[in-house]
């Protein structure tokens, strides 16, 4: 009986190890979004801006006819209008907000970005959320900044009850540790990257780079690799059919489940890409940014200033 029990324990251990290995193994490509595929993978959100920006989000037909979104075989561009002077009493500057048709829970998303929007008044973002259940369903900001103020910051926003430890394995610098949206005007628990070329003109002058997020029930990690970095993992640089995040090194931002039940605070999420102007954040800090005039006046009266207010994506690859 003892021998049988020992054998059973041994077999069970092997099975458990096998299951654990599967759960911790590499991720496999599920969505390879390149060039024209963005038009099929995303839906256009012609909605009022929830962050109260000086923007008019347009539908896909309008964005294509006005050349605010266009694609080639290896590029997808999303941009704002840069030719129209706006009436202060009229709609905001035309721009685009898109959301994936699919939702994701445990996944890795790799964004190969050649260029991101820059300029005074700009507020570009790449992020994930469940809009219909915000903030209870959580939010993950992968790229976000305003008024060309580097570096990038990755941030979580949640309902009350989720916070981050002061000490964790990451290269970035902690901001607020409480992720609760109701604390400090929806500041969230953010991590500022160390690289000045992770956001804005510095990012663009360097040819962009790769950003990646990994989400599971144990942690949420965000990485950044500049275009000319010698540390870009091969599976990221080459857009492989599978990725192994264990080989990617220390993330820029690490959000562990130590004091935050990720499965509770984060629903299945859409990926959202958008460009707004002024509004709650970019407008709120505009006076401290070194930019001219007021934010709304600048956006209204200087269309040519937004010639570089565009995203250029080489690819978005999602692995599950």
Automatic annotation (TrEMBL):
Keywords: Glycosidase, Hydrolase, Signal. Residues 28-290 form the GH16 domain. GO terms for biological process: glucan catabolic process. It comes from the Eukaryota. GO terms for molecular function: hydrolase activity, hydrolyzing O-glycosyl compounds. Residues 1-24 form the signal peptide. Belongs to the glycosyl hydrolase 16 family. This is Glycoside hydrolase family 16 protein. It comes from Ephemerocybe angulata. The lineage of its organism: Eukaryota, Fungi, Dikarya, Basidiomycota, Agaricomycotina.
